[in-house]
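Appendix B. Extra example for self-study. Work through it before the problem class; the solution is given directly after the inputs so you can check yourself.
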Amino acid sequence: MAEGIAKQSEDYSRWYTDVVLKAELADYSPVKGSMVIRPYGYGLWENMRDKLDQRFKETGHVNAYFPMLIPESFMHKEAEHVEGFSPELAVVTHGGGKKLEEPLVLRPTSETIIWDMYRKWIQSHRDLPILINQWANVIRWEMRTRLFLRTTEFLWQEGHTAHATAEEAEEETRRMLDVYVDFAETEMAVPVIKGIKTEREKFAGAVRTYCIESLMGDKKALQAGTSHDLGQNFAKAFDVTYQSETGQREFVWATSWGVSTRLVGALVMAHGDDDGIIMPPRLAPIQTVIVPIYKKDDERTATVAEAHRVGKILKDAGIRAHVDDRDNFKPGWKYAEWELKGVPLRLEIGPKDLEKKSVFSARRDIREKMGFPVDGIVDAVNDRLETIQKALFDKAVQFRADNTHRVEDWNQFKDVLENKGGFLYAHWDGSTETEEAIQEETKATIRAIPLDDDFEDGVCVFSGKPSKRRVLFAKAY
Amino acid sequence: MAEGIAKQSEDYSRWYTDVVLKAELADYSPVKGSMVIRPYGYGLWENMRDKLDQRFKETGHVNAYFPMLIPESFMHKEAEHVEGFSPELAVVTHGGGKKLEEPLVLRPTSETIIWDMYRKWIQSHRDLPILINQWANVIRWEMRTRLFLRTTEFLWQEGHTAHATAEEAEEETRRMLDVYVDFAETEMAVPVIKGIKTEREKFAGAVRTYCIESLMGDKKALQAGTSHDLGQNFAKAFDVTYQSETGQREFVWATSWGVSTRLVGALVMAHGDDDGIIMPPRLAPIQTVIVPIYKKDDERTATVAEAHRVGKILKDAGIRAHVDDRDNFKPGWKYAEWELKGVPLRLEIGPKDLEKKSVFSARRDIREKMGFPVDGIVDAVNDRLETIQKALFDKAVQFRADNTHRVEDWNQFKDVLENKGGFLYAHWDGSTETEEAIQEETKATIRAIPLDDDFEDGVCVFSGKPSKRRVLFAKAY
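Solution. Structure tokens for the complete assembly:
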């Protein structure tokens, strides 16, 4: 257990906060509910952003930037949207020393300002589709905040697309959901369940919200991304029509989809242990740290030089390597710090390694140690990093399997939820009333109606009414 | 002259706005003073950002993210800072449906919130230097706004560094100024003058502000970037001290430096002509556009296929190529559109080119046309792009030389400024009083006290008092 960090088994919530602060991913800001993303945390977010951005561009999207300030009246144009977001708005009432004629809100999401612009940009079917993404900060006034998981300001991307047909919009919604699945599983090494949100949980203004749900180390669920089919709701609210090939004026079809810095929290909680974070190599800001080991001055000179020589070989090969040549810390202290920060692979170079032209390595995830020759080190390190990436994903899949339960009745539902936690697959009668009653009694919510073929006749665990399929329940972040 | 675009010689200001809107770099937003950066403009900004970010990282900086919301009281802690920025603040008074206890301002710049955090992070000389940069949006309530050049919200980067000594801070300030010079000249192909701002023009809270000044096509100056030595002003305002190696508590030394989306406007005005933008190849979102030329259907099939084949060869080689295979526009219409958008090199492929296995090319800048074989096209295109990049820079250097004047007395000053414009090198007595009087009478400001060796005894053009060197005057954006 790392110094000053709670054990997961004793206080998971404090473990999370301790790790985020001590690993210097983030810090509290003087404004309640806001946070500072420190360089190590931002480095992780930059890697996430680059991997997502590449996928967005490969699927034909371009980036743009829309204003942060939105006329308050815009929020009222779509009935469900205003209901969902009004309680979370921050309002600018003064600018340049004067009271504004109309208050401006800070974007909690950008559908309204973007669809106001789309009205100007879309005339004909030839202007469609529009496939725009935006990287931006958003503000949602939250009562209970937690670093990365729920903050008043957060960073995210929000895709906003416009289409000529309902089919195209639905296809886009599903395509981007699959992009998120691929990102979460390939880059974050976090397996996810794809599903549809219930009417109660869907995005305010959407026809249908798809989501990916992941399981954290404390067996609670976390929504990692959402993709919304907005139908013609925003086109109608903002009067956005196009002339079809046959000359008709038609309302445009819309989607929006987003993931946020919340994913940093998901990554910490999906892989971390009592010693700190475990970064998946593909996203780790530092993939391997090289620590020279020495006692005497001449040993220091030689091992530090070799550490930098090896570091350069690795960096030249595109590996994110860091040499920790600080003289004021002992190796054991350095090991603990890099374990806390979750660097996937540690390399040690001592006087004996110099003689043997070898390095000693230690995996962060399973602590496996082995030596290998400096000759061929690029392949050896890349190989180890790939192994770690796969091992993290496999372990998370196994953890989820071990913590997924099919429950048949209400007593079993409560018993499993209380004593085991995790994902519960149970029959539900499809009513919002039942959904609310279950949450009230157990704090569990319907995370998703999964996109799989798991149909079977059954009865709702709560109401006993007939049901055609199981849905995914869990306590969630 | 492109359709719907004013001629530069008739109305430069309208030309600029026409070009920015018609080339789809940006659009007006419904909130006065705010703008939307459209995908083509954002693509340019992304390229600028990447080239700058690479230089920041090469000089040892890391990125982080600080909150957009700042307690209003923070702005008051540094006396000059509050005086400079108070008139431009946007204020959030309500959040989550309630009036806030203390109003929050939207960051106009982040010194205050960052130095409040640095107080927590800096204890010892071992914590220094801190070399952090942030990419963010900022809000400054502006009365007169122009697309990219002055908008209520803009995107920028702001570096904020902390050092143990005055010398280190000054060295950092100058280093980052040189990074901006290198970026402007190498990537934007815009030559700049390095200098120091006068007391009147310096950043609110700085000890010394360095700047780079460029000359636009209408012979007005534009400040393209600033780098501030903040001395200990913010350390004292936020009580940020460190323990030195000898155990003393010392105030920390600071710098900050930034460039913004204003550079997009600078690029447009530095290189554009009556037909539109001319993008420097190193930053162009599209470096070369390929237009198939055909009349009959079979010609269409063949030339479009060849255009895509050539496009793929270029893209695989890392060239940002785009194939314009739209069937509903004639080639001439396409040429005009891509000229407006400033694509540096156009390639045309017609039936005859297919026979000869060649392509026809046209440079955007000097309209030079030539054919070359498809075999070896990657080298040919790269070579042409490098030639264009250099030609744009050389042309801008020549334009600046042609529009730089040494003026000796007040009548000549007014005459040159009125009838020729451009950069005026003139003697100045060093007083704010004279500086203000000159601006009042002529609208010219001191752009910079240049960082060159141009010392000579003379007398101030306005007051006749003695002067040791000339300074740079111009009308400016």
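Self-check: The mean pLDDT of chain A is 96. If your reasoning did not lead you there, revisit section 3.
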